[in-house]
Amino acid sequence: MTDVIVIGGGPAGMMAAITAAERGAKVCLMERNQKVGRKLYITGKGRCNVTNDADVRTVLEHIPRNGRFVTSAITRFPPESVKAFFEKRGVALKVERGGRVFPVSDKAADVVDALFLSLRRSGVELLEDRAAELLVEDGAVCGVRGEHGTIRSKAVVLATGGASYPLTGSTGDGYAMAEKVGHTIVPPQPSLVPLETAGEDCRRMQGLSLRNVAIRVKNQKKKVVYAEQGEMLFTHFGVTGPLILSASAHMRDFAKDKYTIFIDLKPALDEEKLDQRLLRDFGEQANRAFHNVLEGLLPRLMVPVMVERCGIPGDLPVHSVTKGQRRRLLEELKSFRVEVTGPRPIAEAIVTSGGVKTGEVDPHTMASKKIPGLYLAGELLDVDGYTGGFNLQIAWSTGRAAGEAAAGMVLVEEA
């Protein structure tokens, strides 16, 4: 018997367990893996993008999916509080481009170690077991049945993660447990995920990284659903990189919609200035072949693809390039078209979109509106944000809220 059982040793679960224990509750953290925080080890390419150094309003602007739901939780435990939480526990932090917050050491392990020590110091019992079912008596949650036994409790925090990165333990178990006690599950789909594309052009350029490019994503109605500047990468299946992962969060319905990415390869130059540069380059290298001149404008891997797209013979001397052909090149440089066929599998996604319907959860306490004693936090909820530390911020804030409320309920009952 314990006061609070937290299911899931990820960021939301660990934060919930630490918070509940520090408020005086007896807490058991149930994690199927031998170690807690496995997914944290791989976030931020192994560096752990802890949060984003932004105010609450900015954070909410970067949560396109049900951002209003987490307004209360993030307001009470904003990025500045998250930073203070880790710095107090010995993790020195730094802020990089785009407000991304990382450990000074660039080691995700330092973040996990700080959380593990906090769990130990606050008296949380760590139990290596896979939760199989929520126990319910008299219409309220009263414990958890695991593969190795049953534990009874007064409250349960469900923080099992989504369905992304299943090798870290996020296999979607929490969806089934929540659904069994009455919750609606919005069908999970990948978000912040690489994209597959039509044709062979991306495969021919695989390994090519583009920096300081701008993209626009249009749906089949020609509406721009995303526009931003940054970095991307061509792969054997299509495209990935920070720009693409963020863009994928806006491509919500591949079953009913089609999306096209338009890449501006020279965003610092408008069409008129870019045309002037082309005229200058062509004039200075009048007798050189078109494909050779292109190498001064584009990465080498991109040149053969651009030659084909423009329809200009690669060996044509640039003094013979017509005004119409130059216009075609200009259009490709400012609007390089990539047809998206769909996302990569959910197992490759950074986060899962979908999950427990937010209308069935109290946004202030993360308490279930369906069944007393149950609290839900983290990626299990139908909330997700862009890259840049915003999804971990959601995990910390909702975990904190759930841990506070679960402990509060238990301590009120005991009083």
From TrEMBL:
The coenzyme or cofactor needed here is: FAD
Listed InterPro entries: BaiN-like, BaiN-like_dom_sf, FAD/NAD-bd_sf, RsdA/BaiN/AoA(So)-like_dom, RsdA/BaiN/AoA(So)_Rossmann
Which residues belong to the signal peptide in this entry?
A: none
User: Keyword set for this entry?
Assistant: FAD, Flavoprotein
Know the name of this protein?
NAD(P)/FAD-dependent oxidoreductase
UniProt organism field: Candidatus Flavonifractor merdipullorum
Q: Describe the location of the RsdA/BaiN/AoA(So)-like insert domain by residue ranges.
A: 189-351
Q: List each copy of the RsdA/BaiN/AoA(So)-like Rossmann fold-like domain by range.
A: 3-404
- Stored Pfam families: HI0933_like, HI0933_like_1st
